[in-house]
Amino acid sequence: MKRTALAVSTTLLLLPLSACGGSAEAGDGSTITVHVGYQSKTINTVTAGTLLRSLGYFEKQLDALHDGHTYKVDWQDYATGAPITAQMTAGKIDIGSMGDFPLLINAARGKQLGKPTHLISVTGYNLRGGLNTIVTAPDSKLASLKDLKGKKVSTSIGSAADGTLVRALQRIGLDANKDIEKLNQQPAVGASALASGSTDALSQFVAWPGLLAYQGKAKALYDGAQLNLPTFHGVTVREDFAKRSPAVVDAFLKAQAQATDYLDEHPVAAAEKVADATQLPAEVVYLYNGAHGISTFDPAVKPQLVSALKKDVPILKAAKLTGDVDVDSFVDDSYVKKALGQDYAERLSSTPPPAASEVWPKDATETRPFKTPAELLAYVAQHKDGIRAAYVPDATTGTLWFADRAVWVADGENLLPFVAPATAKAYIAEHTGARVITYADALKQAS
């Protein structure tokens, strides 16, 4: 089986609730509107949002209910998870999708207001944490996390990207609240701050790091997969809605599974659809959602992800964004088990595909895989004008990255790519004679 964390603050959670329609209730006795909150540019939720909407699978599943009602789907697009949570607790959104840290805030907020929600399925995940990355400006002299001491770092407090920053700094003995100047900013604001030089680094979630790297506006400083802690995105539903309309929830989860299968079977076409809907470059969407992308998509609620969710709670508590969260009561996989039937066990036990190098040739409807990064480089060297994008996995974490943005190491005849300087440096320290080389030199050596 194949493959956001979002900026959340207590202020955002108290946003005023604009009129977005009611919950799924029959307006004229025959028409029911289902309100779905999603984030079009949070591309690891596409199987419950952008891609699902473009394919029309949910509407088809609702039509197939044949229960005497006519169904309409009200798709509400938001930039972050916070307003989705606010609208859910107000009864204005029935089903929503968001990243793991916002999911916990969703759980806490629902319980606090006496309007509980439940995590019912997973969209995109990475078992090592590779969906979050810390980047710096292309000409930055920062080479490691230690260099961030005393520097300004932009992130979105309450997001998984903030969690990555906090944890990464903790591992080297730095306190994110004392040893750096943390700027709480929306991703787009942080990207602008990085470009203007008003922040030294940016810790963000998919698709911002890949987008900025692709545009030549940033380079990776830290690969979130170095933490080796899962990060994921999922679907949450209001408890009262799920109890009142279990058939609708069932239809949504069956449609999500269909969208997941479509993404797995047609990764290039899926990336193009998401790109058309979001205006993100398809090459960036494919970096995360492709056949060997950073994210794996699967509706199954895997135990590793639930365990990771429990480990996230202390980070949010320390930031005073939540109190204790009863993760076990928040997670309810009974709906997805019922929707997927016998397929659920297989999906639950599935593992991400092995990392692989890929080239996306121009005007091609399929990518071309390679056994090694060196073989990919040899191909690229011979077809420079015919390449749309080239992807290689980090030699130690497996995180996919753009070949021309990777840190390349020559170890004898071996050519090894790394997302960030730190992983390359760690490899070199253990391999005598290994050295960092430029991408141009890597191409020459490969050819």
Give an account of the 3D structure.
This protein has 19 helices and 18 strands. It has helices at residues 10-13, 50-55, 57-63, 82-89, 100-112, 160-171, 187-196, 208-214, 239-244, 246-265, 267-278, 282-289, 303-318, 327-330, 334-340, 343-349, 373-382, 421-430, 439-446; strands at residues 31-38, 70-77, 95-99, 117-126, 132-136, 152-155, 181-184, 201-205, 219-223, 231-238, 296-297, 357-361, 368-370, 387-393, 400-402, 407-411, 414-418, 435-437. The chain has 3 domains: 10-127 and 232-349, Periplasmic binding protein-like II (D-Maltodextrin-Binding Protein, domain 2), CATH 3.40.190.10; 132-227, D-Maltodextrin-Binding Protein, domain 2; 368-446, no CATH class. The two termini are 34 Å apart. With 447 residues, it is of the alpha+beta class. The strands form 4 sheets. Strands 2-1-3-10-4-11 form a 6-stranded mixed β-sheet, sandwiched between helices. The protein has a 5-stranded mixed β-sheet with strand order 7-6-8-5-9. The chain has a 4-stranded antiparallel β-sheet with strand order 13-12-14-15. Residues 45-266 form the Solute-binding protein family 3/N-terminal domain. This is NMT1/THI5-like protein.
